[in-house]
Amino acid sequence: MNSSEIRKNFLDYFNKRGHAVVPSSSLIPDDPSVLLTTAGMQQFKKYYTGEADALKDFCSKSTASIQKSFRTSDIDEVGDESHLTFFEMLGNFSFGGYFKREAITYAHEFITKVMQLPISYVTVFEGSATVPKDEESRAIWQELGIVDIREEGMDDVFWGPTGTSGPCGPTAEIYCKNASGKDIEVWNIVFNQFMCSGSREELLSGNATLSPLDIFGIDTGMGLERLAMISQSTKTIFETDLFSPLMDLLPQSMDVRTKRIIADHARGTAFLLSEGVQPSNKERGYVLRRLLRRIIVHEYLAHETPFPLENILSAAVREYRGFYPELNEQTVLKEFATEKEKFLKTLKNGLKELQKLENLTPQNAFKLYESYGLPFEIIKEIGGDRAASLSRASFDEEFKKHQEISRAGLEKKFGGHGLLLDTGELKAKDEQELKIVTRLHTATHLLQQALRTVLGEAVSQKGSDITVERTRFDFSFDRKLMPEEIQEVEQVINDIIQKDLPVQKVELPIDEAKKTGALYFFSAKGGSASGGKEKYPDHVNIYFVGNSLEEAFSKEFCGGPHVTRTGEIGKVKIAKEEAVAAGIRRIRAVVE
To answer: Which of 224, 237, 289, 538 allows an S-S link to 279, with CB 3.0 to 4.6 Å?
Structure first.
């Protein structure tokens, strides 16, 4: 089966068995404990914990989805036969609707009857000091005729939470052989029986607490790339129809490892850019920048057999747009061109400096990154033996030291506003530019509230970026704004500016601050208030526009800086409104 047939057959199979088919959630998760969506169950966590009712939301206690997923831990390993950043996860889920017998039976039938693939063996949980052996699963597999049933421990077949806490439980895995005869795990069936009050690492070390879930549930994950490899009888995932259209566009003389890196990173880049992620030196933007700059370097070095990366990115969009209509080729190519132009200005000099170094240390490797934008992966690859002792951990530690130094300097320079400026939301090189972006920053607060006033309170911020030229604001909304709506949003903002209302700040404990009705994006402890899906400290600043917090036009958790009165902003003009991903719009506005 080709990948499109696999997707269709999977969803059809479970839909016919009472599962509501739920679209993939965004790669930008609502869960503050993870940077990107890493598994299909993330959008369903609240149904396992009882915070939400699946029957009410989906008209069924069971769902099925094909989730676009992204894992950053494997970036350095991409290039071998199996590691990926972006991948698709097929999953079926149940929230008190069915449990082990049905989940195992469904999986067995889908693999052996629908896919017509033989199962090599399965695994079950061998038990631990706190959780008994999974004898029930073993008995079900035996009834289905599976002979080779292997027991494994907590680190292999006990699924931990996807973030710092969450549902967990023992698992059963299904293995099938690929074309080279290697046994590949294709499906993991998690029996969610417990709530884990800790991360997976804490679970394995015995430092997490397990308590029984009120609603037992099923959470399964099957990698589409692996299943396609088994179904299409290929030796690696890169020979399947998911990758061959991209791989075939690359020069035949190029080594296979580089081809795999480019194909993987092109897919990941296309999806991240279409989701509205922007290249930066922070969090998701940093992940995207690593992908982009790594493949740009490979394109730059391919002098004898040049290939345009634009063609690879366009092919990635073309191959996946049928199932993921949010992929936007124009956005992908535009943002890629911008990042490429920036990077090429310094790349040549950076490679020259790299060749001069006899030994690559974390310090001089980071200097190459800081001065020339060379990604760690490229330094490691091109450095060869000179980079033998250079590790990702040591490089990241040097990066962390630099961030701390920069933060301290910014806080000193801007009177305590360093944390905000460090997020990259505000960009100002001198005091004059700082005054301009400060006006735009307050205008952005007014813009969000005006959008909520005109379009409804379902509008929420998905990202923002402010330069001296404009503010760029991303928000949740499922359609294009009408011209009269844009005009009304402008009018609401400018009315508030004309009233010359005070812009004030109050500091409150996090729990008390939430009760004020101020907008915020996450409640965990941690970082800044840039509106970019950050975490918050124990005490937060609320900036509000109006004479009192209770009657304010706008109030948000924020780190500043802001104007003192709205009259300082000037007139706001919306320059452009456009889509950046499914359900996400973008506004660019200026102040006059």
So the answer is: 289
| SS3 category, 453 | helix
The pLDDT value recorded for residue 431 is: 67
pLDDT the model gives residue 433: 76
Taking residues 468-478, what's their average pLDDT? 88
Overall average pLDDT of the 564-572 stretch: 91
Distance of CA 237 to the CA centre of its chain: 22
The answer to whether residues 41 and 16 touch, using CB atoms and an 8 Å cutoff, is no
Q: What percentage of the chain has pLDDT greater than the value 90?
A: 55
For the chain, the maximum distance between any two Cα atoms, rounded to a whole number of angstroms, is 77
pTM, entire model: 0.68
Q: Which of 304, 221, 311 is nearest to 263 (CA)?
A: 311
Q: Strand 539-545 relative to strand 554-557: parallel, antiparallel, unpaired?
A: antiparallel
Q: Is residue 411 pLDDT above 70, yes or no?
A: no
Domains of the chain, residue spans: 3-239, 250-407, 431-591
Which tens digits make up the pLDDT trace of 44-71? 988 987 889 999 999 999 999 999 999 9
Q: Do the Cβ atoms of 574 and 440 come closer than 8 Å?
A: no
Instruction: Give the tens place of pLDDT for each residue, 268-301.
Output: 999 999 999 999 877 899 899 999 999 999 998 8
CATH topology match: 3-239 vs 431-591: no
Residue with tokens 């609401």: 492
**Alpha helices, DSSP H, located in 134-199:** 135-143, 154-157
Count of C-beta atoms within a 10 Å radius of residue 256: 13
The total of other beta-carbon atoms located within 10 Å of residue 481's CB is 19
DSSP string, 233-285: T-SSGGGSTTTHHHHTTS-TTS-HHHHHHHHHHHHHHHHHHHTT----SSHHH
3-state secondary structure 542-570: EEEECCCCCCCCEEEECCCCCCCEHHHCC
Q: What order of strands is seen across the sheet that includes strand 572-581?
A: 461-466, 471-476, 584-591, 572-581
Q: Can you list the pairs that 454-458 forms with residues at least 24 positions away whose Cβ atoms lie under 8 Å? A: 454/485, 454/488, 454/489, 454/492, 455/481, 455/485
Classify domain 3-239 at the CATH class level: alpha beta
Contacts of 220 (CB under 8 A, 6+ apart): 91, 92, 93, 103, 107, 187, 188, 189, 190
Question: CATH number of the domain at 431-591, please?
Answer: 3.30.980.10
Q: How far apart are CA 400 and CA 573, in angstroms?
A: 39
Contacts of residue 185, defined as CB under 8 A and 6 or more positions apart, other chains included, come to 173, 174, 175, 226
pLDDT in tens, 130-150: 888 999 999 999 999 999 999
